[in-house]
Amino acid sequence: MDNPIKLTEKYERNGWPSLIRPDIKPPEGWNLSLLTSLERIRSHALSSQGQIACIKDSETLSDVFTMSSTGSWLSRITTDRPLAAYWDDEIPEWSPDGNWLTFGIHGHVHIVPREGGLPKKITDFTVAASGARWMPDSNGLIVTVERSGADQLLLTDRDGSWPRALTTDATGDHWDARPSPDGKFIVFNLRRFDDLNRLDIILLEISTGKQITLYGKPSTRAISPKWSPDGKWVSFISQETGREELYLVRPDGKGLHQLTKAKQDIFQYEWSPSGARMLVVVNRSGSFELMLLETESGSTSELRSEAGIHSNPNWAKDESFITFEFEGPTLPPDLYRMELPGKKVTQLTFSTPPALQKNRMAVPEMVSYKSFDGLEIPAFLYRPEKSNGAAILYPHGGPKDQYGFGWDELAQYFTAKGYAYFAPNYRGSTGYGQEFERANYNDWGVGDTQDCLHGAKYLRTLKGIRPDRIGISGGSYGGYMTACALAHDPEYLFACGVMKYGDSNLVSSWAQCEKRLRLYTEIFLGHPSSNAGVYLKGSPITEAANVQKPILIMHGLLDTVVPPEASEEWVEALRREGKVFEYKTYDDEPHGFLRRENLYDVYERMERFLDWYLLPNG
User: Fold this and answer.
1) How far apart are CA 476 and CA 132, in angstroms?
2) How many beta carbons lie within 10 A of that of residue 64, not counting itself?
3) Which residues pair with 555 in a beta bridge?
């Protein structure tokens, strides 16, 4: 039976709509066209022959490109790859010999030769496939498919030959396969359905199918398994100590030991071709710094500590240079190269329009405040040069995410307009240890909502901010936080809210979203059949009558993460209670707003709404 709820693109309102403020002009040097003009270059991989593959998000596509590692024009490889959110997309992967490139298009694995050509789909033997990993011979490919309710690993080749199943049990999801250097084994992640907070590291012998657990502990997440180049060690990241640290273990399960003791979270790492060193990205309170680690001793040295986000480090085959991605509060994402030794850095791509480069950017301050129970909540505060008296509180998505020193065009734009922009890392955020990360387990919409409300109280203590001019605006879990905050705000701390693709009824959304999101929710809240009270307590739709301030709601109708029905149900409840709202849907948007024309419309509606309700006197 098809879904009986038929949704179409529309705009609705209850109450007088927000109107354009003719007395408020865009800040000098800024407009929404400039704000939505950025084409993000990301998700790069460096081949053994020194060629870079990357993805560029344009106005309507997220296509794959290649370029020289010394810097050159981008050469287009794909021409029809749909827009994908950068945080939910795969990285193209080069074959070990550097002659082939694999990536996903329309839910299937494709390959092209290094010199280019039309992408060839190699997984037409299944409904969908992803997560391609090359075997050492540059011919075999391991792909991930869903079967019997679980993600399984299959072995095929460049020709898309009928695959061989490497895993078959339906007790959990099998992810992130990594072949050994000799091609005889793989290691992979097993996410067990009987303990969704547990991720094990499993070794499988390809010829026999025999499996052994290299690492697995109750309620402990171990991720990112990789082989040392000589095949003598398997490395991975584990949260066993309460922090994300690097570990090593022998393929026979012996010799397990903790390699790093950074007492910070290791975000990413990459073995050098010789195996003597690793590139390590360390999360230091929202600044993701690039380090060099000696594998023999575990000692580290700094490569780049600029406040920003370093990601996806790659080694050149001869270890003479590395490539990485970097973005900061004042710098949009681009690709970079660093020579070793010497640390000379060369920018390889230039995504920032010259008009944007000329503008003065704000750098956020790191602050903190106490929530209702005394828990210290870290936050990022953008202060405008000339305040207009208003502030926007931005709760990030996730909730298992973190606001950090990354590029945020809305923060820059609204700060330039005179708004204070405040991004708290409420309980449940990553980057501050396992205890903080799990502080909202069985507690969605309760403690974290109070963290946002107390963030508004903190803003009221700051000079230049009017207590009646604070709004809240977020997307995904941040949109859910917006709904929760307005539904639990008896002190009227917020004057309005902007809710983008957020939730309202945790029970119905759990039932309507795709499998991976149902299980994601169950990590935090358990199954609704056994934990219904927690689901209902965290659903702002039960408190719609308490919403006292206007809210702008926007949602894409192709969303499979937070179903668009969540906003539809929320709007229905608000209308029934006679609340003031505006509601806009987009029939060609998934989770997040990706298409430039839609993003422009979203930003325009946000600006008009916030200016209307937060700047009553101009």
Assistant:
1) 28
2) 26
3) 585
Q: Per the CATH hierarchy, to which homologous superfamily does domain 11-35+356-614 belong?
A: Alpha/Beta hydrolase fold, catalytic domain (3.40.50.1820)
Q: How many CB atoms lie within 10 A of CB 91?
A: 14
pLDDT, position 618? 55
pLDDT of residue 581: 98
Domain 127-355 homologous superfamily, CATH: TolB, C-terminal domain (2.120.10.30)
Which residue type sits at 412?
Q
Contact 534, 448 (CB under 8 A): no
pLDDT in tens, 38-72: 999 999 999 999 999 999 999 999 999 999 999 98
Asked if pLDDT for residue 321 goes beyond 60, the answer is yes
Domain residue ranges in the chain: 11-35+356-614, 127-355
**Which residues 6+ apart lie within 8 Å of 288 measured at CB?**
267, 281, 282, 308, 309, 310, 311, 404, 405
Cβ-defined contacts of 256-263 (< 8 Å, 24+): 256/214, 256/215, 259/235, 259/293, 259/295, 259/298, 260/293, 260/298, 260/300, 261/298, 262/300
Q: Give the mean pLDDT of 124-136.
A: 97
Instruction: Report the distance separating Cα 313 and Cα 290, nearest Å.
Output: 8
- pLDDT confidence tier of residue 1, bands split at 50, 70 and 90: very low
